[in-house]
Amino acid sequence: MSVPPPALTITLGRNAYRWPLRICLTALTVGLAVSLSTLTGPGAWAPEEAGRAVAVCGGGAALIALAAAAWAFVIYQDRLIVTIGRDGLILRRRGREAAIPAAAVDAVGITWPVADPVWTVWFDPEAAPGAGAVTKVDGRAAVLLRERSLPQGWLEAVHATATETLGACWRVLDDEGREVDPLPRDALREADHVVVDGEWRYRDDRTGALLAVACTPPAESPGLPLPGRTTVLRDPQARTLLEFRRGRAAGGRVRVFLADGRPAGEIRGSLEPSFHTPDGTLLGTTRVTGGRHVVTGVDGRESATLRIEGDDDGVHLRLERSPSAPGPLRTLALALPMAVHGTGRHRPVRWAGRRSGRA
Predict the structure, then answer these.
(1) Suppose 27 and one of 64, 272, 329, 336 were both cysteines; which one would form an S-S bond, judging by CB atoms 3.0 to 4.6 Å apart?
(2) Helices (H), 117-266
(3) Each residue of 59-92: b (16+ CB within 10 Å) or e?
(4) Per-residue pLDDT of the chain (359 residues; tens, 9 = 90+)
(5) Which residue from 79, 103, 86 is spatially nearest to 10, judged by alpha carbons?
(6) Which parts pass through the membrane (predicted)?
(7) Residue 276 phi/psi, 5° resolution?
(8) What distance in Å separates the CA atoms of residue 274 and residue 237, rounded to the nearest whole number?
(9) Residues in a beta bridge with 261
(10) 212-227 CB burial, b ≥16 within 10 A, e <16
């Protein structure tokens, strides 16, 4: 018999302070570089002019760094601290505290966007009248924290504590407020016919069930990641299914990782990508023929095909994977729509830069 996890306390992670830290370090670096360039080297200025430049640049950099540090301090002071356990939830912010008793909790979960889910608790507000003074409360829902500001691994920890220790229901709402039904963890892996729409949602072509969403960094077009970036395939419950990472010096190579962090293989190239094992062994290649992108395994058989179709709802990418294809190649073939999109020659729809459950 498993033992329920103990009470869990979560607050902002280091990502919440990322921009203040970047601004602080950048200001100090630029100020130091400009100051040194006026004092040393072939372009050194006269002592009096150099002194004035150092005072202006160094002083300006110091002020910007201090402002960034003050920003980080404000974020720290205003952080929400959430403790979830057997007796319910305790919310703390700036010396204020509110308790939501376990009996008043309807459900714990997340609301979309899938790319940046919001930790939410649904409860009876009459049983916790002070919650609105600590966090935003909308009807019976209290908004706690967004994923982008939380430490890595928070979702699994909160899910386990909420369902096993608190005994609450786990709820996921989409961007239209509808409840999202859970799917088997391997639903995407086992689907042979998948359609990818213009919002980069992977659906079962036969049942219409949403299987995954491709999530990219903000302000980037969907597709395989740019150098130094990561694209993540997540299921509707915001759980990671696959990660596609391109190193800063990796050229055209994209490394693929499973949800548990194990490497699944590599993708090389764009319009006609090849697929490889983690150690570089070739699994299959892609060729464009008759309006289709066909993935052929090393055994010469078709392992997957991608067709581009249009209708009144826009353009869709239809991916068919052979049930007899090797498992690693079936997994890597899920990146074929993103690889084709990334070339710019076959874009399903105009990308408007929105970052929602639509990734």
Answers:
(1) 64
(2) 154-160, 187-190
(3) eebeebbeebeebbeeeeeebbebbbbeebbbbb
(4) 466 778 899 999 999 999 999 999 999 998 888 888 777 766 667 777 777 877 888 889 999 999 999 999 999 999 999 999 999 999 999 999 999 999 999 999 999 999 999 999 999 999 999 999 999 999 999 999 999 999 999 999 999 999 999 999 999 999 899 999 888 888 999 999 999 988 889 999 999 999 999 998 764 555 677 777 889 999 999 999 999 998 776 567 899 999 999 999 999 987 789 999 999 999 999 999 888 999 999 999 999 999 988 766 667 899 999 999 999 999 999 999 888 865 444 443 332 233 334 33
(5) 79
(6) 21-41, 53-76
(7) -135, 155
(8) 30
(9) none
(10) bbbbbeeeeebbbbee
What letters, b where the CB count within 10 A reaches 16 and e where it falls short, cover 294-311? bbbbeeeebbbbbebeee
- The type of residue at 142 is A
Q: Which residues have a Cβ under 8 Å from the Cβ of 23 and sit 6 or more positions away? A: 64, 65, 67, 68, 71
Q: b/e per residue, 100-118, with b = 16+ CB within 10 A? A: bebebbebbbbbbbbbbbb
Q: What is the DSSP string of 327-354?
A: HHHHHHGGGHHHHHHHTSSS-SS-----
Per the CB < 8 A criterion, the answer to whether 104 and 29 are in contact is no
Strands (E), 30-124: 81-85, 88-93, 96-101, 105-111, 118-123
The single residue listed with the structure tokens 């007796």 is 87
For residue 284, give every residue at least 6 positions away whose Cβ sits within 8 Å of its Cβ, in sequence order, or none: 274, 275, 295, 296, 297, 298, 303, 329, 332, 333
Task: At 100, give phi and psi (nearest 5°).
Answer: -110, 105
Is the distance from CB of 102 to CB of 166 less than 8 angstroms?
Answer: yes
Q: What is the three-state SS of 286-314?
A: EEEECCEEEEEECCCCEEEEEEEEEECCE
Q: Tokens 């990334």 label which residue? A: 342
